[in-house]
Design goal:
257 residues, alpha+beta, GMP Synthetase, Chain A, domain 3, 6-stranded mixed beta sheet, 8 helices, 33% helix
Length: 257
């Protein structure tokens, strides 16, 4: 079976265990990608019943980054729920339950203890800082690390249908400070929180220390959107062809039962 992005991220972090950015890269691939959670039975509507394994160190659930790997582990077709890794991490936060990833079937085979899942959930829950001073001018973005730009691009590419596009611009503030702003254009109703979390995730998992970025939401008719288009770096978000399946909508994760 071919290596996946999660495998490559894990092997890269193992090859350089002191490289903090590579370790963060593994966790970024996990929370950004789709996972297949092993269930006791087929989902009932938006409710799922994960298969719980009681180990000496405590209970764990099992998830895989490919459906084929789940089948390889079980030896036969088994019920599962597909969802973003981020959704699974958030569901397990504070539950005292560990998570086995690709156990025994891939180079990225790893057991994540509850404290790691709690840390990941906390990282995902952080939000970009709100503006504390008025923006007095905008200019092309400058000086941001390539790692952060790549992390933003990868994150936003997974936020299907939550906005049309985003522009990254440099900013000047009335306080004299200079910074950067990511302006989302035509965000879907109620998607602001999910988009802000995506930006914070990019900051957290980029490996860039003290990376700060303001976020705002504009309509295409807003004159500021036109200014951003002239000066900013554009990120196009993918648009859905159909409504998201249960568990794939960041605003409506599946419920455990």
């Amino acid at each position: 079976m071919a290596e996946t992005a999660l495998d490559r991220a894990w092997m890269a972090s193992e090859a350089a265990p002191e490289d903090h950015a590579l370790r963060l890269g593994f966790y970024a691939r996990l929370v950004e990608g789709e996972v297949f959670l092993l269930l006791e039975e087929e989902p009932q509507g938006d409710q799922i019943r994960p298969k719980l394994f009681e180990l000496e160190d405590g209970p764990i659930l099992l998830a895989f980054d490919l459906e084929a790997r789940l089948t390889e582990f079980t030896g036969l077709p088994a019920p599962y729920a597909a969802m973003p890794g981020r959704v699974l991490v958030e569901m397990l936060a504070g539950k005292g339950t560990g998570l086995g990833i690709n156990l025994g079937v891939a180079p990225s085979s790893r057991l994540l203890p509850p404290e790691i899942l709690d840390w990941l959930a906390q990282t995902l829950s952080e939000r970009p800082q709100e503006l504390t001073s008025r923006i007095t001018g905008m200019h092309p973005p400058k000086g941001l690390p390539e790692a952060l730009l790549l992390a933003l691009d990868q994150r936003l590419a997974r936020m299907e249908g939550l906005a049309r596009m985003a522009y990254l611009v440099g900013t000047s503030h009335e306080s004299g400070a200079r910074g950067h702003l990511l302006a989302f254009v035509d965000a879907a109703p109620g998607a602001e929180a999910a988009l802000a979390r995506a930006v914070q995730g990019a900051l957290s998992f980029s490996g860039v220390e003290a990376a700060l970025l303001d976020v705002t939401f504009l309509s295409a008719e807003d004159g500021r959107a036109a200014d951003c288009a002239k000066l900013g770096l554009r990120f196009d978000l993918p648009q859905p062809e159909a409504a998201p399946a249960p568990g794939n909508d960041p605003r409506r994760p599946p419920r455990l039962r």
